[in-house]
UniProtKB/TrEMBL annotation:
UniProt-recorded name of the protein: FAD-dependent monooxygenase
Pfam family, one: FAD_binding_3
Domain of life: Bacteria
Keywords assigned: FAD, Flavoprotein, Monooxygenase, Oxidoreductase
Keyword presence, Flavoprotein: yes
GO molecular function, one term: monooxygenase activity
Protein source organism: Rhodoplanes azumiensis
PANTHER family: GERANYLGERANYL DIPHOSPHATE REDUCTASE (PTHR13789:SF318), MONOOXYGENASE (PTHR13789)
Amino acid sequence: MVDSRTILIAGAGIGGLTAAIALADRGFRVVVLEQAPRLEPTGAGLQLSPNATRVLIGIGAAPRLSAVAVTPDEVRVRNAQGDDLARIPIGTAPQRYGAPYWVAHRGDLHTVLLDLCATRPDIKLVLGARVDEYAVHANGVTVATAGPTVVGEFPGLVLIGADGVWSRVRARLFDDGPAHPAGRTAWRTLLPADAVAPEHRAPTVNLWLGRGAHLVHYPVRAGAMINLVAIAEDEEIVTGWSAPGLPEEVLEHFPAHHWSATARDLLARPEQWLRWSLHGRPASRHWGRGPVTLLGDAVHPTLPFLAQGAAMAIEDAAVLADALARRPDAPQAALRDYEGRRRARTAGIVRAARRNDLVYHLGQPAAALRDLAMRIIGGETVLSRHGWVYEWQPPASFAMPAPPGQAGGTA
């Protein structure tokens, strides 16, 4: 017998947990099925722009998250030689957009979301439960899990595939093949703040643009650590998010004849890196069928050149919870409503990220024209051109005011 309030979510990542909290707050019982036998605070840093922080504030994450996040004053854009191109004043986000711009380690945000789930008695998290198959029936859907530690069946009203770019739910739903390699490898690491020069400890998102590669670094964990991500053209494919990376292979992609000594010195400091291959998909017309839908990277994997991958999953979660809350007696219609409300928005974000891929990685002479244009345009104009991204508003039920001092809190 299916509980008419039970929602099944495959995947306990950022999108899946945000959806679980939002749904529980709207009267649903949620079962989150996660294939990992334990959850660890892994991953890279995240940029949480106002469109995402509005939702996080709305689900009550602000007090915990603002304590570990950093509120950057600006995005400092430089070319590979270290020449300043623009300073984008994202520190004005609370005044300009009504919500803060935070940077945080993914593991810290994940921990905050897990803590919030633990306060909701209607959320059940099942670890070691890999979604193997699902069967649609008159009352909803039943998921069969096949380990690694939990074998069983879980009935629910709907199934939400929030299981990432290698989604098993998507494979079962559409059988349209794996995501496509983007020809880019990302390396990530954390450095203690006292191990880098003082300029790198400032509350700034640093973005360096070079031929075929770029570098991003900013403080996380209340300023105690520096998140460092290097992305470069690379045809080698590695599986998973945490394959080991060698320091020398990172420096090979950032050669001394092209990159400044300041950038290379920073890249030379870590003793260990983790690496993953970037993947993408063409925009999809169909996100779901019957009582099954997809969320986040499972349906619209977004290259990290607009800093919107996590934000899109968070937005998806808010709209999906709102759609189901509006039509709890017609869940399949609610899922189609959610998909229709999200399709154009996410497709636009994916396209914009791909455009940035080209702009970030230009070689000469096109890079010189890009650099000149950015200097002329200036950071204020660059920020205003991102207004369509940051001004997005969640459903009205998420517009919950944060306690004084928390919505724009700094680390």
